[in-house]
Amino acid sequence: MRLRKFRARAYRCIHDSGEIRVGDLAAFVGRNESGKTTILQALTLLNKDQQVSELDLCDEMIDDLKEEVRLAEGEFELNFEEIKLIKETFPSIPEIRKIKIFRTNKNPIPQYDFGDVEISEAENSGLNSWENFREKFLLFLDTIPNHVQIKLDTEFFQGQAPETEEMFRNEMAEFGNNLQVLAADEPQVIEEWNNISEENDSNFQSLLVGTTEKMALENFIDSNLHPRFVYFSDYKKIIGNVNLNEYNRDKTGPSIEFREEEFDKAETVDNLFYLAELDVDELEEAKNSPSQLIKLLNTCSKRLTEKLNPAWKGDPIHVELRLNPNNVISVVISDVHKDGTVTNTGLLNRRAEGFKWTFSFIVNFAAETQKAELKEAILLLDEPARNLHPTQQRGISDLLKSLAGSNQVLYATHSPYMIFDYAPGNLLVVELDKKKHLSRIYYDYWNADDLTLTPILYGLSRGLVESILDRQIGYNSRPVIVVETISDTMYLNAFDKFLQDPNISMNPLNIVAAYNKNSVLPLSIFYRNHGYNTFVLLDNTDESKEISAQLIANEFSKTQTIFFEEKAKSLQSIEDYMVIEDYLYAVNQTYAIKLRKEGYVNLTEQDIQSRNKSGIIESLHSIWEEHRENGWEEFDSEEVARYICEKIAIEEADFLSDKTKDKFRSLYRLIAERIRQQQNLMSSQNSDKKKMSV
Predict the structure, then answer these.
(1) What pLDDT, on the 0 to 100 scale, is given for residue 261?
(2) What does the buried/exposed string (b/e) look like for 226-254 if buried means 16 or more CB atoms within 10 Å of the residue's CB?
(3) What separation, in Å, do the N-terminal and C-terminal C-alpha atoms of the chain show?
(4) Is the CB of residue 13 less than 8 Å from the CB of residue 431?
(5) Which residues contact 525 (CB under 8 A, 6 or more apart)?
C-alpha cells in the first residue's frame, strides 16, 4: 500500500496543508522552522497505535476544533496482491483499488473511507465473522443438556476474537476434549460439535470480525493491511569497540550504555551484528577452534563490507571484525583503492569524526531499514544526511533510491545534494507564513519563495542560481535555450564556432544545460518567471514530448519548444545531426585506447545500422550492453562530445564532413526561426494590450 495523497489540518503550525500528492521517494525542502518535521510527524497520526495529544492541536484553530476535524488523512493505492486479497475475502464487494485513512480530533482510532464503493452496513448473519461464529456457538450451547453445560468452560467463546490462529486452535481443541468426556453419552451433541469444529478448524485466517460487511472489511484492513509509518530522527554514532561480556550480560535486560571509548548505544551493536549476520552464541562456540573462529569472522566481515559499500562514495572501504583479548570486538577499517591496494588500516575510533559519523549513519540506517519489521513500511526521515560531506550525501541518496523499491520513503532535507528527483510529488516545498506562523506545502514548488527554493535551484543548475534570481538580468538578457544535457551545450557552442557562419551564429543566444531530463520543466519555468525569453530544445523521445505538453500547460507557446529534426524528420538526439561515419570516428578514437585490453574493435556504420534502433546513441548503448561482461561498462556519450568539441576548439576536426556541417546549420536555422516567431508573437500581444488600454 503506497501513500499517493495526504492532507494535514489543525496540527501544530499547520492550518491546512491542502491536498498534496507524493511519489515513492519524496523530499520535503524548506527553511528552518518551516514545518518540514511537523509534516512528517503529522503523517504518523495515521498509525494504528499513535496517540493524539492536546498539545499537538493548532492553537489558532480552537473554534474549528470544537467540531470534528480530520487532523491527518491519506489516500492509499493498493497493489495487485492487496486488491486480490480483499476480493478473495469479500467476493460480494466491488473491487477496491484505493482507500482513504484518516484520524480526527474526536476519535482515538484511524477511520476508513472507501469512496464510491458500495459496502453494506446491514447486519449479516451469513458473514463468516467471529461474532456470527460466537452466535452459532451460543445457539449450540443451548442444545447441550444442563448437567453437561454447567461443567463446560465457555469464557473463550464469549469474549473478543483470538489474536492468533494458535490460540483459536488450542481453545477449540480443549473445549472439544472436555465435551467428548462430559457428553460421552450424548452422541448427537458430539456429532453437532464435530460439524461446527470441522467447519471452522481450518478457517481461522478467513474468520472476520464484525457483524456487517463494512465493519468486517474495516477490521480486516486494520489487522492485515493497515500501513505503518516509521519516523527516524535519532542517528547514533559508533565510537569503537564492544565488550562482549557486558553485551551478553545485558542484552536481554534494559537498554545498556557503554563507556565512551566503546559504543554510544547498545542498539548500534545490534545493528552492526545484524548487517554482519553475526550470532554471538555462534561466536562463543567458535572460540574453541581457531580456524572456525577465523572463518566466521572473515565471513561476517565480508557481509558487512558488501552491505555498506553501495552507500559509500569515494574509494571503497573494507570492514573487518576482530576478536581481541578480554572478549572485545573491534571494528577495523581499510581504504581499498581502484588499483587494488589497501591502505590506512586501523581502528574505527582513530578515524576522523566525520568518517565515524558517516560510517555510523550507514550502519544504523541500513540495518534498521533492512530488518523484517520495516519491510513495506512508509519511512519518514528527518534530515537523514546532516553532517555529511556532499559526496557522502550522494551515497545516502543512492541508499534511499534502493529502499524505494520495498518501502515508500519521505524525507526532509536542506541539502541540494539530497534532491535527485524533480518530478512534482517527489519534491515538495514547505514554507512558513511568518505573520500567521502557519506552514504551507507547495506541490508546484517552482511557485514558492525564491530563498526557500535555493537548494532546489542549486540542484537544478548549480552555478546559475544568482543569475536566475536577478530579474533585471532576465529582462535585459539574450534569449535562453534550455537543453537536456551538458553534451547539447558543448555541441551547440562548438559547432557555432566551427561553422563560422554569421547568418546563423548562436552568439545572440544563452545556452543552459539542465541537471537531468526531469529538471528541464522546472528550470525552464524558473527562467521564464524571472524575465528571460526562454526556449527549450528537446530530443524526440516520449518523455520529451510529455515535457513539451507540460510546458504548454504552464503557458509556454508551441514555438518555444524545439525538437531535434531535419527536413521534418525526427531525430533522437543532437548526435544524429552528425553523419554516422563522422561520429564513429570520434567514438573509435575515444575508446580504442581506453578499451584496448578489453578487445575493442573499431565500429563501422554497418554495426550501427544492424541494430535497427531509433538513433546512433541508442545503438551504441546496445553494443556496450552486449560487452558489459568484457569490461566495457556503459557508453559515455558525454566523453565523446568532449573529444569532438576539443578537436573543434584546436582546429583539428577534419573528420567532420560538409554534410555534418550542413545538418547542424539546419538546426541553427530552426532555432533562429523559432526565436523570430516568438518575438513576432510577443510584439503582437503587446500591441493588442496597448490598443485595449487605449
Answers:
(1) 39
(2) bbbbbbbeebbbbbbbbbbebbeeeeeee
(3) 59
(4) no
(5) 446, 554
Residues 517-529 have pLDDT tens digits of 889 999 999 888 8
Nearest-angstrom CA–CA distance, 179 and 114: 44
Read off the DSSP letter of residue 181.
H
CA distance 446 to 519: 11
Lowest mean pLDDT among 82-91, 403-412, 601-610: 403-412
The pTM for the full model equals 0.60
Chain length of the chain = 694
510, β-bridge pairs: 480
Phi-psi region of 599 (alpha: psi -120 to 50; beta: other; left: phi over 0): left
Report the alpha-carbon distance of residue 273 to residue 284 in Å, rounded: 14
Q: Which residues pair with 581 in a beta bridge?
A: none
| Residue 590 and residue 638 in contact, taking contact as beta carbons nearer than 8 Å | no
- 293 Cβ contact partners less than 8 Å away, ≥ 6 residues apart: 283, 286, 287, 323
The residue to which cell 577465523 is assigned: 294
Nearest of 414, 601, 311 to residue 37 by alpha carbon: 414
Dihedral in degrees, nearest 10, Cα atoms 360, 365, 368, 374: 180
Cell of 508: 545572440
